[in-house]
Amino acid sequence: MPELPEVETVRRGLEPALLGRRVLWARLFRPDLRWPLPERFAERLEGARVRALRRRSKYLLIDLEAPGGDPAARPETWMAHLGMSGRFVVSDDAGERLPGAFALGPNAAAARRAAHDHLMLATEAGRVTYNDARRFGAMDLWPTADLDAHPALARLGPEPLSDAFSARALGEALAGRRSPIKAALLDQRIVAGLGNIYVCEALWRSRIAPERAGGAISAAEIRRLAAAVKAVLEAAIAAGGSSLRDYRRADGELGYFQHAFAVYGRESEACKRPRCGGEIARLVQSGRSSFYCPRCQR
DNA sequence: ATGTGTTCCTGTCCGC
DNA sequence: TGCGGACAGGAACACA
To answer: Would the pTM count as exceeding 0.90?
Structure first.
């Protein structure tokens, strides 16, 4: 899936179409994403105003205000996870816009949906389509006040770009772990939001070999690693994420961080570390490819 | 408890 | 050009 930087980029891309806007209509075409969508999903979006767009780990959190601002209604949050191939695309019906109104109604918009478009909605500011070929993505509606109790969020580790994620916290989470550091960093309970790409890149930046046991990483290495995780995520967000295969920004543009990869997808190419001279290798760990430089990552 | 392998689904790419 | 197999950004689950 899109990892944290890609989800953050999508969040920012959705803001112009959603933030402060009212959902004029919503249509659901497939209720069976990774888990079944809640009852009356599209109907519950309709009429709601979007109060905020947040992100927790790789989850988009879209806070809604009930239609009419009904004070008795419990505000809900629309949670979305993009899985491996989920995409949100904003379109403005360029060239079709009617004066003072958003052009395509639900039936006309639905009639022109593309393969794997599973959800479509419109606000006063644009149309948003969720497309997900593999359907590993997921959505839910959950009371905003109890969001931390959602099963998908309850056990997540610290946000890597927050102060809660530090060398000290990482060291404590890794203590005694015998699993490889690669697997540990993919474990969302240790740190939330990393995926295969950014784990590979962070390990390269901190010169740590992916097979090392998590509990065997020294304090100095952990300091490098925590800093590398933050640095690589920040750089990727600044670049609009990485575009491989399915991922696109919500505005349809490509992110460009993939050009900055030091190891991911670079098997048998030269290590980018000055004067290293190593060659990038690939190894499979718990079913996932790990890319690393055997020469400078120890 | 902790760690690894399998599974969900579809698309793409590579070698024959 | 067709076909089979490997592989893909995630993560819940079953099992050792």
So the answer is: yes
